[in-house]
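The methods section describes the discrete structure representation at length, but only in general terms. Since the whole study asks how a given chain folds, the encoding of that fold should be made plain. An entry of this sort, consisting of the sequence and the corresponding backbone structure tokens, reads as follows:

. . .
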Amino acid sequence: MTESGKYIFKKLNEYYLTVPWNPTSILPASQPILPTPGTIVEVYSLQGKKVGKDVSNLKNGVYIFLLKENGIVQTKIFRIVK
């Protein structure tokens, strides 16, 4: 990655600290997401990469959780802290 690319990448990763939807929910990595039966949970990085469904395997950071149930889709943003 070029120096300018590294700079932009760093700024975008820091951006979440100042935006209105700043993730204030802190979810310990040991605490499982407990969806209701029939709910599909997908976890994405802030870069949009799907990282799985298991909270315990995530590193410290901010993630987007996609919850799908009965045709309804919800997104939640969590900061994972171990």
Q: What stands out?
A: The chain has one helix and five strands. The two ends are 29 Å apart (CA to CA). The chain has a mean pLDDT of 75. Helices lie at 3-15.
